[in-house]
Amino acid sequence: MKSLVRSYTRSFNAFAANLTDREQKKLASHDDVVSVFASTTFQRQTTRSWDFMGFHQNVRRNPAVESNIIVGVIDDGIWPESESFSDRGIGPVPKKWKGACNGGEDFTCNNKIIGARWYTPLDASVKDGSGHGTICASIAAGNYVENASFYGIAQGTARGGVPAARIAAYKACGAFGCESVNLLSAFNDAIADGVDIISLSLGGGILDIKDDVVAIGALHAMQKGILTVNAGGNSGHGSGRKSRTASVAPWLFSVAASTTDRRIVTKVALGNGATIIGKGVNSFKPDSKKFTLIHGENATSSTCTEKEAKSCEDGCLNSRLVKGKILICEDAHRQREAMDAGAYGIIEMADDEFSSVTALPASDLSPENIREIQDYAKNTKMAVANILTSESTKQSDAPIVARFSSRGPNLLIPEIMKPDVTAPGVEILAAYSPKESPSNYHFDHRSVKYTIVSGTSMSCPHVAGAAAYVKSMHPNWSPSAIKSALMTTAIPMASAKGKHTEFSYGAGHINPVKAANPGLVYETIEEEYVKLLCYKGYSTPTIRKLFGNKRSNCSRLKHHKWSPKDLNYPAMASLVRRNESFTVIFSRTVTNVGGAISTYRANISAPSGLKVIVQPQELSLKKWNEKKSFIVKVGGKVAIRVLSASLEWIDGNHNVRSPIVIYTKSPNKS
To answer: Which one is catalytic: 11, 130, 132, 247?
Structure first.
């Protein structure tokens, strides 16, 4: 077996190799080695969404600079023929670009997609088979495409956050996920190629930073002035540790997913004139006639139990009884079974929070609505129905954080609030690979240019696009300044819109227009990250190798009253003991990026049980880039899981808001 798999030298020094346990231990003991860890596999985690955020097509832009912005998308490739990646109206490749178009078979770059590389050995090109990379790239930086839709559903102008920006695609993911070795290669090249923003819609488990290729790659990107935006994860429906976001490093911009004011529904029209509203993206046009309804328990073979029959489990359906009818199943994800049995359509019981593309006429209904249909069917001699083509409806209470969106707190660094923000990630129209089934069922042979999808994989590129927009307005801003601008201008969300409060939506829902003029920013310098990791127990040699800085010295911190809560982060968080009095002091410094002469006054919002004091309560700024420091003293006693407060610095033109989260450990939980 070949020992050396790959080496990384363009942006950092590392290699991947096949090692025995003995070789791994020997290598790990070497003074020049930061860490040796097993390769892990990470998983991949537009017409209305930008308008919903107030980021309209006529928003003020800086066209020349935006055209110079390069968004690196690390994913499973890209479909270059998509209209979203047309270079119509886009000039020559930026002179700063140092990358290449190594797209492989049947792949051509243009002035939109200017770079392409792939690292998956079983693939012959950067072309995206699953559609995931194409979706993400089009949301972040897709060109304008009028009348885009999924068979007329969600029709409008599709566009990314920075339509004039360039895209560099790095294919690090294959059919079975995204291997660490490939992700490191992608980061290595993206940094050296000169991208400005990295969009990374993937994640895995919670890992120590020195063993986490995403954290390591993003750290090296940060050192080169590149912000990495990362999907927070789709495991929020779980419990305990499994529901927590793995995107925890403070230099990562971690993104949750929430709804927009457009929801897609599929109605079921019953023969008695009643109409029931369900979920699903059903593109199939209804027949003029209605179809007989049949419940799974009345369409079963004799080999299945009653429960199995009601659920329409595999092998339980008698195709002779089902063919040409609408099947009712008391379970979800039974479209394959319905199709195999020859059903016209299917009504499934599913408590879904979002609509997914269906492979045949289908609607997902709540248990209550399923019972309504069952009652109709039992009490009607010829019970019939039809499943209507999906339509868009207005949701007035948006945004709401999706239940699937992974949440905090940060299990690795409790003082750093995660996720950072939320953005549209539910029922998003985006460009797609025509090679892949839009419903992901093998028997669905439709080929589409655009599809409708949900996940933090979709919210992540919204933030990447917004970050690229802010970068285009302020080309010299650091990654932490861009991140701060998007966090402190985010729209606050009420606790009712996310039961886990800031641990579900972070600082709030992004507002790209306001982020371009935040007034003040919290800049985090590299030295603070060094302090953080020293505090967390990393040794000086490890820190020096990780950061590539021989001057770093953890021993100097022994005489400093510094802790992770003092990291100059736009949010403040602290873990305290339940029902015990506490006092926590946060130190922060802001930089003036608003008016040359301005005075900001502190405005505190705090619940009963928390006392928040800011010193000083007024910041007088006389020039651009002037820095002012302050402390926030929080005291009280917490009897519940989370208490949330906020600090706003207000000068009459800007509201610079930071959430303050005091929380306790859940009893008997992670």
So the answer is: 132
Residue type, 29: S
Encoded amino acid at 58, one letter? N
* Cβ-based burial of 522 (10 A; exposed 0-12, middle 13-18, buried ≥19): buried
pTM of the complete model: 0.92
pLDDT digits (tens, 9 = 90+) for 103-135: 999 999 999 999 999 999 888 999 987 899 999
Is 220 noted as a catalytic residue in this protein? no
Find where tokens 């409806």 sit.
Answer: 393
Q: How far is CA 484 from CA 206, 490, 503, 528, in A?
A: 24, 10, 17, 15
Q: Are 224 and 191 in contact (CB under 8 A)?
A: yes
Q: What is the DSSP letter of 234?
A: S
Q: Select which of 84, 457, 644, 646 is catalytic.
A: 457
Residue 447: active-site member: no
In the sheet with 627-637, reading across from the earlier edge strand, the strands are 520-521, 581-592, 627-637, 610-615
Extended strands (E) in 438-516: 450-453
Write the CA distances from 73 to 131, 227, 428, 595, integer angstroms: 13, 12, 18, 35
Structure-token pair, residue 662: 């005091």
What number of H helices and E strands is found in the chain?
16, 34
pLDDT single digits (tens) 579-628: 999 999 999 999 999 988 999 999 999 998 899 999 999 999 999 999 99
- Of the candidates 11, 49, 67, 75, the residue annotated as catalytic is 75
Q: What is the 3-state secondary structure (H, E, C) of 504-546?
A: HHCCCECCHHHHCCCCEECCCCHHHHHHHHHHCCCCHHHHHHH
Interatomic CA distance for residues 377 and 73, integer angstroms:
50
Count the neighbouring beta carbons within 10 Å of the beta carbon of residue 301. Answer: 13
What is the rounded CA–CA span in Å between residue 638 and residue 664?
Answer: 7
List, in sequence order, the alpha helices (H) in 91-212: 132-141, 180-193
Based on the residue annotation, tell me whether 75 is a catalytic residue of this protein: yes
| Distance (Å, whole) CA 203 – CA 247 | 7
